[in-house]
Each structure stands twice: as C-alpha cells, then as structure tokens.
C-alpha cells in the first residue's frame, strides 16, 4: 500500500489492513486466530506480531490466510486487530498512536498475504516472514564471452 495525502496533513486515528474470513467461520464455525507470538483470539488483540493468521473450516476443509507485516512498516512490530465477534483479523498500525501523512511524503506499508490449506504451520509462516523481511541478496554478473 502506498498512501499519500494530496492536500494538507492528515492524521489517521484508526486504520490498517484486515481480512474477513469465510462466513462459515462465524460463530459455531470456530475460526482459528494465531499470531507469530502464539496468541489466539483473546490474547492477540493489540499484541505486537510479525504475522497473523485467520482460518477455519469451509466445506469440511480447513484453510486460512496469513498477513505478514514488513519490518520497514512505521509501527513495527505492528499491533494485531481482532474483531471480538466476526472472523476478522489484521494489523492496526495506529493502535500505538496516530500516523500523519504529509504531502510529498508517502506512507508505504508493506504486507504479504499467504493462503494455506490445512492447519496453520508456525514454522512455515516464520520462515516465510523471514524471507519477506530479509530477502536473499542476489548478485548477477555477465560472464565474458569466449
């Protein structure tokens, strides 16, 4: 995401990026909430995390989506937002305070979405977050022609 104000400074009092789970995950559908720090729905609200996961069963099969937050985002690590009733989860960078966007100074927030079948795999999500946060360096050189 790349937000930039075009007229004057603006201050956000709330905001972020969230996902809403399948309607089958509502109520008795028992959605699964998990963060990089191992928190579930009750403990995740407002907690800082590198990634958050929301999943559940739909059509008898378990699946979910994780959001990975980049460490260059302004409110790192970001606070997690969890809706108390609906299957909604995401990041709330303004949980720790307002963010001001000024003309000519864009606010860049980076996220990666990962869709998974089956149970959430913390090791896999930690690995994917690390690859996102610290991409491997690549050095490409042209070989001299013979």
**Uncertain stretches of 5 or more adjacent residues:** none
Major sheet details: 4 strands, antiparallel
Write down the overall geometry. globular
Please, how many helices?
2
Q: Give, in order, the helices and strands.
A: EEEEHEEEEEEEEH
Which keywords apply here?
four-stranded antiparallel beta sheet, mainly beta, 12 strands, single chain, 2 helices, 146 residues
Characterise the protein shown here.
With 146 residues, the chain is mainly beta. It has one domain (2-133). Helix content is 11%, strand content 36%. It has 2 helices and 12 strands, in the order ββββαββββββββα. The strands form 4 sheets. It has a 4-stranded antiparallel beta sheet. It has a 4-stranded antiparallel beta sheet with strand order 4-6-7-12, with helices on one face. The longest helix has 12 residues, at 122-133.
């Amino acid at each position: 995401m790349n937000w930039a104000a075009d007229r004057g400074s603006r201050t956000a009092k709330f905001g972020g990026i969230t996902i809403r789970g399948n309607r089958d995950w509502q109520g008795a559908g028992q959605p699964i909430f998990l963060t990089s720090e191992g928190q579930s729905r009750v403990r995740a609200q407002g907690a800082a995390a590198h990634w958050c996961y929301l999943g559940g069963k739909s059509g008898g099969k378990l699946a979910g989506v994780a959001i990975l937050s980049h460490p260059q985002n302004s409110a790192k690590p970001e606070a997690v937002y969890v809706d108390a009733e609906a299957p909604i989860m995401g990041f709330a960078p303004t949980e720790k305070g307002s963010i001001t966007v000024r003309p000519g100074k864009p606010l860049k927030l980076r996220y990666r979405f990962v869709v998974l079948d089956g149970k959430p795999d913390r090791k896999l999500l930690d690995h994917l977050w690390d690859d996102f946060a610290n991409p491997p360096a690549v050095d490409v050189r042209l070989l001299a022609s013979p």
